Amino acid sequence: MHSVLDRCHRTLFAVLSLLGVRGQERLLHRYFDWWHRRPDPWGLAVDDYEQFKYATTLRQLPARRYRRILDVGCSEGTFTHRLAAAHPEADITGADISERALARARAAGPAPRFVRLNIVTTPPEGRFDLVFCAELLYYLGRARQLRRACAHLTAAVAPGGLLVLVHPWPEARRFCAYIEAEAGFRLIAEHVERGGCRPFAVSVYEAAGAADHRAPRRPAEHGRRTGRGA
């Protein structure tokens, strides 16, 4: 069932992307505001699969200090607030296209900070040590929009910083290819969760530092047991 729904979902957003960047932005804004007419429409705060995915994502991060963190496509801020709990010393920003979602995210507490952003049309302000983009890129449709979004994502990463993509597997490989086409980024960790009916991948990219001349390396792929259900 998930695979059928996913195919319908991808077809819909591929068609929307034919409207051009501005037309697509207007429709996506309305679409996500409509979805957020009620709180937590996808059950991100309570669904076991989502909680497992959040925990799996955080486990892939290198143990280092992150001063500025950005969560792109944050919805109502469920993962963003989890980041704030895990990194209380960091300046954390959540960004989303839906004003309704952002209003609920802000209502949950004075921090993190939440801003409206369409990653296709507008790059984030400033640069960050850690940038997340989860379950977002498949909404963008055509290659043109994906290239723009990924260029904006990589531009937001400070030298030596990390960009983390989290998307369904094996579709995630298609999105990762756009990041790998950007100069100065190397894959340092990738976890593929193959269990259950909703496999996903967490891919961690590191931006070159000011004096980083190391040759890129591709890590071994890791996966958990295959018996876990969603």
Automatic annotation (TrEMBL):
Q: What is the lineage of its organism?
A: Bacteria, Bacillati, Actinomycetota, Actinomycetes, Kitasatosporales
Q: Does the keyword Transmembrane apply?
A: no
Q: Which PANTHER family match?
A: METHYLTRANSFERASE, UBIQUINONE BIOSYNTHESIS O-METHYLTRANSFERASE, MITOCHONDRIAL
Methyltransferase domain residues: 69-161
Q: Which Pfam family, any one, appears in the UniProt record?
A: Methyltransf_25
Q: Which InterPro entries match?
A: Methyltransf_25 (IPR041698), SAM-dependent_MTases_sf (IPR029063)
For this UniProt record, the keywords arranged alphabetically read as follows: Methyltransferase, S-adenosyl-L-methionine, Transferase
Protein name according to UniProt: Methyltransferase domain-containing protein
Q: Does the keyword Iron-sulfur apply?
A: no
